[in-house]
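step: validate -> pass
step: tokenize input -> pass
step: predict -> running
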Amino acid sequence: MVMKNTNQQLIEKQIIELCKKNFSDDLTVQQFAGDFEKWTMKVGEYELFLNPFNCSWFYLDTLHDSYEDTNHKAGEGTFYANRELLRFEPDNGGENFADKMVYQYWMLKLNHFIGKLSEKEFLDEVYKLRFQGADGVWRQVSSSNGEWLKYNGSAWVADTPQCVYNSVKGGDKL
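step: predict -> pass
step: emit ->
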């Protein structure tokens, strides 16, 4: 198993912060997303760029002086260099179930903002971010703010999952 790349984690977390910004049509790309360098990192001899608008990772093809798609999205796994080759290891899905669901919420929120998802499509996808934990309690991500909710038997109320839920009885497993 490959250790998570700290620089990659920081860059991918910037997407969540970007989604929390107050959006305005008057903003330039730089005002909205910041400097290009904020979204780049080195892995061995390779330079990678995370496109903050579609959450896709690109690598710099130095021969053609262009960025090429890695076919990997933010949050899917870890880039690393091995014997001077760029490698990618997918996440195994069990590290932190709750964090991955919140991350998925912010990716949906970004896609809704840039027009790739309608309001209905956004809500339909967010409502899939629910599961029943080993304790029997249903939890889901709030569609309004990405915070956790739990069902107390009659209403959804604020919650803070404290651990990885090892036993999932329903909902979509990430």
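step: describe -> The first strand starts at residue 40 and ends at 43.
step: cleanup -> pass
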